[in-house]
């Protein structure tokens, strides 16, 4: 059966390498549906990824794509956007990719408010290398490098993105697929740095070590732990533990970096600077 | 005592060596195919079987930075990485050597990007060959284990005080199950000895500084001293190898000569390929062919005099490089050996094979074809194509 998805993928690259039940496929579908809704020309979209399971996405989509190095998808994307501001630039990262090795680039992309969409597939683990805990592994959860539980405090990417200067910040999950598609659509359409964190499942690496061995266990856990913004406000701090709030957290208008950059040149020309 | 053989991967063997070494600090970041090594070691940490401070940093750049900090403070420090991880460390890799910090790093060789590839070649560590680190290459899990233990002694030798990287081939050795004979804990502890830090930052009564600005007034002198230090380490590598034989029964020198002394044709190779080549040498020897192998263990410092002695009697040699030096005249091992042979009165015919990039398999048929090529070269008395690519579609 052909669906709208077939119009945007490189069919010859399938089947994909993702494990059965991996949330990455759900995210891929949601991104494509959002782009299809927006009627974007697929040749004017650049999708950039780093290293990790999620980063394989750039092999599967029929856009202009680049698979870069671990943690550096955002700087590569910044270069692409600056060189051609008319390009729609979408960056897909994993939690280790975005918040550990690429953490610095994440806050600076947000600070500049450059017109990129950052989609972070957060499966709370380094999946590809076999389940080491990441900066987004919740405290007390298990990883191969934390066999007795993680003692680190995890980042809250939503708060981090907001504080660092993003224009649009949302969090969705691979369980709430319709909501996820609409969050991604809004993020893509936003002028400025937009962020969608997606809570995803990894039964193979994360689930196995955290008593959720099957896809169903993991998705059920994601469903049970997700709380809407409205319901979140009524929860006590104790009830909030282990849960995550989903929805839209920021939607403001600020001049984006490429716009400011071209203005500098315009002003300079007005002042009589000759080339 | 009877010998106890354990079946395990190269990664597990090195993790066990690190457990026995029990370093003060280990800082690392996950990267395939090194991951299982650090992961296994992290279990030893979590189980309280070592005293190591294990730091799960946010990148390899930070891993090597943490190692430099800890080593300057006066700790015995280790880490592990592969490919792009080593590339990301690069800035600090040089700093570790220049600050004369005896860090030991296990490198599981893997191809560098792009395109992304997780399999074995030596482009990662060959890229670091001028960084001032001592480089030991291992043929199999046993050698990776043994070299890791010896590396501590070499690095910490008072006349050396330089970091050492110990290599094993990604997936081939790191993930293949092999037979390894461990040395008893007490023997390892005694062999490596108690670490004697030199100029530790934690010695607050004798304050020092590491790495300050050093311009055209003294920088050159410091580099000259560094060149001398790594040169001296060659003697230490041999001494430590001899001592290691006493506790293990296994011999380690600068390189291994396999049917080389009476050979007419030979291959020079690093790491696991040497294992495959030995098999071919055996087969060809059984047919009466005078073939041999030189398996280089120590690539930095490069033991050029000993290599000349070992090779100059040959009629033809093939030097195998599992990495390319793009735009250069042959791969790193080839240029080094060919340059060394210029010091020899008699220079064998020589040819370079670039092979196995990105994990492309090299098998006995390939190696047999190299010995056949050498036979042709001997017959013709000349080399028609100096640098060849083995097993590639063109």
Structural class designation of chain B: alpha/beta
- Main pleated-sheet profile of chain B: 7 strands, mixed
Number of domains of chain A: 1
User: Any idea how many domains of chain B?
Assistant: 2
Give the termini separation of chain A.
56 Å
CATH superfamily of chain A: Thiamin diphosphate (ThDP)-binding fold, Pyr/PP domains
Q: Could you please describe the fold and organization of this structure?
A:
The complex is a heterodimer of chains A (275) and B (394). Chain A is α/β, with parallel strands linked by helices and 275 residues long. Chain A has a single domain, classed as Thiamin diphosphate (ThDP)-binding fold, Pyr/PP domains (Rossmann fold, 3-Layer(aba) Sandwich), CATH 3.40.50. Chain A is built from twelve helices and eight strands. In chain A, strands 2-1-3-4-6-5-8-7 form an eight-stranded mixed β-sheet, sandwiched between helices. In chain A, strand 1, helix 2 and strand 2 form a beta-alpha-beta unit. Chain A is globular, with a radius of gyration of 19 Å. The termini of chain A are far apart. The model of chain A has no long low-confidence stretch (mean pLDDT 96). With 394 residues, chain B is an alpha/beta fold. Chain B has two domains: 246 residues, Thiamin diphosphate (ThDP)-binding fold, Pyr/PP domains (Rossmann fold, 3-Layer(aba) Sandwich), CATH 3.40.50; 136 residues, Rossmann fold (3-Layer(aba) Sandwich), CATH 3.40.50. In chain B, the strands form three sheets. Chain B has a seven-stranded mixed β-sheet, with helices on both faces. In chain B, strands 9-11-10-13-14-15 form a six-stranded mixed β-sheet, sandwiched between helices. In chain B, helix 9 links the parallel strand 10 and strand 11. In chain B, helix 1 packs parallel to helix 6. Chain B is globular and about 70 Å long. Chains A and B meet through helix 4 of A and helix 2 of B.
Task: Describe this structure in a few short sentences.
The complex is a heterodimer of chains A (275) and B (394). Chain A has 275 residues and is of the alpha/beta class.
